[in-house]
Input
Amino acid sequence: MKQEKKKHGFIKGFLVYILLMIALIVTGWVVLWRYLEHYEAARPVVVMENYMTQSLETDVDTAITVYAVERETYYQSASEIAEYLRGELAGLEWNYEKDEELSTEENPVFVLRCDEVALGHVTLTHTEDEAQMGIEQWENPAAQFDFDPLGKAVSVIAPYECTVLVDGVQLDDEFVTEALGLYPQLEEYELLITDPCHLLVYTLEPVFTEVAVEFSEGYTVLSCDEEDVHYAVPEFDGEEAEQLLTYCESFVQAYVDFTANNNGLWNVQQYMVENCDLFDEMTQATVGLNWGHGVNAEITMLEIKDFVYYGNAITCNAVYSMTRDDGDRTDHMHILLVNTEDGWRVIHREMYE
Amino acid sequence: METTHHSGNKFVRALQVTLRVLLVFVTTAALLCAAAYGALYILIEGPSPGASEITVNIITEQGLDWVLPYVTEGEPGVPSGTE
Output
């Protein structure tokens, strides 16, 4: 009887032990599950995911409104800026990436990109609430946006005497970012052009609308390939321009006469700045007889085009066809003229394809 | 006779105690295995992909890749829930 009791006692005790163990294990699993839930919720990446889906759109919209007011100028209204930005960003996908440089242990920072363009930062901070299960939670992310990269920079390069008007309003010194002594188009001839120009570079940035750039009387727009750069060059007197076109034609004719037909060194040198490199090169050519002569070329077509007056220099391109002993050909010559005491003279020429 | 009977009882009791200890030991081991399996399963398949990545990294760093096929349905070394 006693033995039976002992036996049952063991079975009971064993069952209680198993049940307690099972309860303990299940409790452990539940605690682990809940801990992982909190861990997951506290991960900065998850906080960011939630931010992206729940708050980003509203934040961007608000930021655009504030930004547009800050960037409002006389040539672009806040509503135009806001409309442009909303249009640009519509339908584009935002993504985020941790900014390792800005992030700290306390504050992870994420870069917000839209179509690969970085337009903002999100900084996470710890909540003031007590940590749940020992895991710190992150505060609602604070986002800062900068839409400058979506705007364009409009540059205006003009002589300092020239008045620049943008949408009818004169640009003041506030917009001047640089002073130049030479137009960028002439930079490669920097050593040849000794007479400097006094140019100012105006920069409008960021610009979200189309702006109309005009110059005061006496200046004209120089067309160029750069879409958002406007050059003002002095207007050239029409009659003098005609004379210079003829002058350039005569130079090319004389140049071909000399180089192909060995006809008259002085005839071509009279068009040049005395003792410039080109002048000396031609003199040297006749001394060493290392110049190609005797081809007998005759110009059948000559056109001077792309004539640009910069104030202190003139550039143009000559396109001419020749009938030569060794076959017909067409050449292209880029010509640079500078103003001397004797008037405009050629200081440089180069052939191009 | 009585001595023989007495020593027989002692042997039975000793055997009984040994079996009980063994039973408790085996049961405890089985429960601990189940607990570990469950914990590992929760870590890998549970609510946190972040935790699963860490767990899988630890396991693979420790050279225990063979564990994974038993707790995940995917490829060993690739935590479920991550691409």
